[in-house]
Amino acid sequence: MIRIVLALFALAFGSHVFAQELRGHGGPVRAAAVSADGTVALTGSFDQSAILWDLSRGSAIRVLRFHQGAVNAAVAVKGLGFATGGEDGRIGLWRGDAAEPAKVIEGHKGPVAALAISPEGGHLASASWDGTVRVAALADGTARVLEGHQGPVNGVAFAPGGMVVSSGYDASLRFWPADGGAPLIVTAPAPLNGVVAAPDGEIAVAAADGRLRLFGSDGTRRAEIAVGDTPLIALAISPDGATIAVGGLRGQVALIDRKMRTIRATLVGPGLPVWSLAFLPDGKQLLSGGADRLVRRWNAVTGEHVGAVVPRAGEDALAAFQGERGAQLFRACAACHTLTPADGNRAGPTLHGIFGRRIATAPGYTYSDALKGMDIVWSKETVARLFEIGPNTYTPGTKMPEQTIGAAEDRQALVDWLEKVTR
């Protein structure tokens, strides 16, 4: 009977039998891409690493550490391997399982949020929070810079014929002609995140109002599909263009039949933000990555999770400190920082053992050069000062989001609590 079940599984999912989940990242999984033959995947995380995976075994081939900041974007590059884009504004081109990038592309002045490869594989487009899109020729590195967005550019895609499409926080969708002419600009009712292009030229874009919007390559509005009431932050399209997968902040992932304009299935995950989606080449399987630090595998036909039943959002690590003001304040930090050595680093370093530790010395975490040169030892006084005047003022060059705690008693409550729980 077991052999029969395994045979049926192989028929349904192809010749590769994959592990249920890919585990290894220390922070939310922000990016995912799959090789053209479906045997290898690359994921990027807020923990500043990318991981190259052997999908046939469900195991990591190599952990890639290059970016100084979150790895926000990944794409498979024909004939090379993968490209990654980071918070540091750099793009790394990775050949095979090499430990260092074969080539580095620079030029952006802000985080790279999305990458796309041209159909012929010769050009790489990158969208950045510096408000620009750059289209780089992989052969010689020359780049065409597309300017016009009023704010962060969150998505980029190549449409048939060489047209580049970009989507931004300014709620504009821009169609950039291959010949370098002025773009066609379409404005949406809400800020826009990811964008993808189907083989027939139709464009799909995910919006902050929970809607997926479809456009023709000439900018005509074709359809609007309500997916949820929170921002849509992850988007992928199957290679044949038949299915669109879109994910949001509350963990919902909808599989949309593009022809019928309907939600065919909803993936039931752990209820945490889904940041990345990637189809396998046959379009029958889907990878998702999110805030729980896992890469999950789905049947993209039925919407069922492959493997064990997916639990709902896990135990609240701060539940034991209910009623403590310091724990309440720390909730704003918990997405990026852990408190115990077992939990390791996330987008920021673990805070275990922070008091008495010199800045930029937590093991296993990649710091910016600006922080490495500072003469700060973390104490209750220095941590309180950090939140009194803000990270950008106290530690210039930090990747930490700007935040302050105005009340002295709240700063004291936070550092007293941290002293207790990080020993």
TrEMBL record:
Keywords attached to this entry: Electron transport, Heme, Iron, Metal-binding, Repeat, Signal, Transport, WD repeat
Source species: Bosea lupini
Signal peptide extent: 1-19
Protein name: WD-40 repeat-containing protein
Top-level taxon of origin: Bacteria
GO MF annotation terms: electron transfer activity; heme binding; metal ion binding
Pfam families the record matches: Cytochrom_C (PF00034), WD40 (PF00400)
Start and stop residues of the WD repeats: 22-63, 105-135, 146-176, 267-308
Domain Cytochrome c: 321-422
